[in-house]
């Protein structure tokens, strides 16, 4: 029983997903949702802002890779001790995001983990689905 | 000259004639050429009055003047990077709409925030002050629940106070004094902290962009991403609130991103 409690499964009813046109004009919306989620999860102010900046950076990176007229999907998974974000976009590029860029250094600094991958989109369009996954852990608070 | 009547700099075009050969030179250099940074900086400096002039035209609409000049300068950099002398268009008739577009976008993205109710502004200031006090007491950034408890208000109030901080421009909430001793001290340390940038792959395209950010923003960026300090630690070091640091970082990153994308695209 106690072991089960230690690893509480992330419940899909706590997940939040946004779908929006892959255009930077929508970035403020994604950003404010990210900040709102971290705020309501009672992350500290540094972590709230870090997550917000990271989601902004990740989504901007994907939008730059996005095929014309494509949709940016952004899923937030809220766990008891971390918030995970996966953002994906359809792209004409086959590679994942560039991890040697300054932007990636930004993501690494702001989050506890940052990964990127690319996979065929599965419908035979020749396009790829490029994704960035981030997670931000709740800082350990003494007392 | 084929400039339209709406172009505000028609009468001053001759002031920039000496810069036109530099534009041709820049357009001919390869993306990776080390001379680009220097040329670009000369051009940005040379054409700066254009950006400042446009920023002035948009002042008095509720945005801070420094912000407007920064936004206009960003538009100018975009124009310099994208300008193709081969198309036979005059640079100013290309640059002016680009810069104005950038400034308009700035207003469009933020204009709903101009009239924030007084109560929200006060909430923001209380939350910000409480956050500073609690950070000192706890040795880390507080959570919204801790701020609510400290202020004796509901969490929803704290949420609102925090969110309004995202809507406002820093200047309208808590502009700090610039040009004082602290400012001078910052200026002296900036070069040193920029050194960490060397390790990043495209630092060469980063350098000229960083140099366009105000010194304070550059320093904050370096402290966060090259020295890995938390926003709360940075806030203490530069004498701003954490929320202010957060906003400055957000703006700086957006600016760098646009610039880097231009270079690659």
UniProtKB/TrEMBL annotation, chain A:
InterPro entries: HATPase_C_sf, HATPase_dom. It holds the Pfam family HATPase_c_2. Transmembrane segments: none annotated. The keyword DNA repair does not apply. GO terms for molecular function: kinase activity. The keyword Kinase applies. Keywords: Kinase, Transferase. This is Serine/threonine-protein kinase RsbW.
Automatic annotation (TrEMBL), chain B:
This is RNA polymerase, sigma 28 subunit, SigD/FliA/WhiG. Residues 43-113, 124-189, 209-258 form the RNA polymerase sigma-70 region domain. GO terms for molecular function: DNA binding; sigma factor activity. It comes from the Bacteria. InterPro entries: RNA_pol_sigma-70_dom, RNA_pol_sigma-B/F/G, RNA_pol_sigma70, RNA_pol_sigma70_r2, RNA_pol_sigma70_r3, RNA_pol_sigma70_r4, RNA_pol_sigma_r2, RNA_pol_sigma_r3/r4-like. It comes from Haloechinothrix alba. One of its GO terms (biological process) is DNA-templated transcription initiation. The keyword Hydrolase does not apply. It holds the Pfam family Sigma70_r3. Keywords: DNA-binding, Sigma factor, Transcription, Transcription regulation. The keyword Ligase does not apply. Coiled coil: none annotated.
